[in-house]
Design brief:
With about 290 residues, the chain is α/β, with parallel strands linked by helices. The protein has one domain: TPP-binding domain (Rossmann fold), CATH 3.40.50.1220. Helices cover about 40% and strands about 15% of the residues. The strands form 3 sheets. The protein has a 6-stranded parallel beta sheet with strand order 3-2-1-9-10-11, sandwiched between helices. Strands 5-4-8 form a 3-stranded antiparallel beta sheet, with helices on one face. It is globular, with a radius of gyration of 20 Å. The two termini are about 35 Å apart. It binds nicotinamide-adenine-dinucleotide and zinc ion. The site of nicotinamide-adenine-dinucleotide has 28 residues, from loops.
């Protein structure tokens, strides 16, 4: 269950501490997991319960997130695998990111280093809310891009031409399966899945190079950085691990916004037990007063 903490009950010093870390920073490292999209109306996949609530057709047949999100499911049950990913693709296309994304963008736009984004989200909602794709590392890839399931080519191409039609009662793709333009095999999303040796890194390599250059510039100019982590879970820890690394390597303090898993480890870091939109807005109200 979502913890329902009203802004008035949040530790006041946590909010002002967060506002001070942001006000004093030269740049933001914005790290985010599925929780940042919950206030836009997207599901997170916390545990089997959360996943099956979002995909009741998969609950009926007892298929877990780790099982459907795998290259094997594309090989064995392509219509079911594309039913799941096609439904998500359509959902991420149709839903608009909430206003908190814009507030975050404004914070960074006033800083010398701006904002660097590191996210495991595959939904493209940072780009959709106006952040430049040149400042994002999508560490698990993107659902808006496709690749050959057989890996016949290193090419990764846009999914824009593909409009999935999905029967949500059975989680089956109803229209034609997308195929590789080179060999005609099945196409799959360019997303890192479980048990996945075939994910192609063509989009990821320039993102990682841009990230390294941004961090190098921050280091060379002694920029004070703040990590703002929103809605990142601890089970699949890629986003949390990156934030921890930024703390150690860049000396950045962290503001963690999460209604459940808000505890922070480092001295000088701050955890805000809040949902993303209200957490961001409450910190913003303090920043606006300064
Ligand atoms: N939108 C997406 O692209 C999307 C959505 C679901 C899952 N995924 C994929 O599944 C994996 C899930 O890992 P994860 O850690 O991102 O998600 P997760 O579902 O494991 O954890 C979500 C986190 O968000 C927090 N949360 C829940 N509601 C929130 C809210 N309103 N505001 C702020 N935080 C909230 C939860 O407490 C939890 O810590 C990743 O690999 C990711 O690629 C992506
Ligand atoms: Zn191919």
């Amino acid at each position: 269950m979502q913890m329902d903490i009203t802004p008035n009950a949040w530790p006041r010093n946590a909010i002002s501490h967060a506002a001070k870390l942001i006000a004093d920073a030269d740049g933001i490292i914005l790290t985010a997991g599925a929780g940042i999209g919950v206030d836009s109306g997207l599901p997170d996949f916390r545990g089997n319960d959360g996943f099956w609530k979002a995909y009741p057709a998969l609950a009926k047949v007892g298929i877990s997130f780790t099982s459907i999100a795998s290259p094997r499911s594309f090989q064995r049950t392509p219509r079911l695998a594309w039913g799941f990913y096609g439904h998500r693709l359509a959902l991420y296309r149709s839903i608009e990111p909430h206003k908190g994304f814009e507030v975050l963008r404004n914070w960074g736009s006033k800083m010398r280093m701006g904002t660097w984004i590191y996210t495991s989200n595959v939904d493209g909602h940072f780009q959709k809310s106006g952040f430049s794709g040149a400042t994002i590392n999508e560490c698990h890839g993107s659902i808006h891009h496709l690749q050959c399931l057989e890996g016949c080519t290193p090419e990764v191409w846009s999914a824009d031409y593909f409009t999935p039609e999905v029967d949500s009662g059975t989680c089956q793709l109803l229209n034609d399966l997308p195929t590789c333009p080179h060999c005609g095999s099945l196409a799959r999303p360019n997303i890192v899945m479980f048990g996945d040796n075939g994910w192609l890194s063509q989009r990821s390599l320039p993102q990682r190079a841009n990230q390294a250059a941004w961090l190098e510039h921050a280091r060379a100019t002694k920029a004070r950085l703040v990590v703002i982590e929103v809605g990142a879970g601890s089970v699949i820890a890629s986003v949390r691990d990156f934030g921890r690394r930024m703390r150690e390597e860049m000396g950045a303090h962290m503001v963690r916004i999460n209604p459940r898993e808000f505890t922070v480890e480092g001295r000088g870091d701050v955890g805000i037990p809040a949902r993303s939109l209200s957490g961001i807005n409450t910190v913003n109200a303090i920043l606006m007063r300064q």
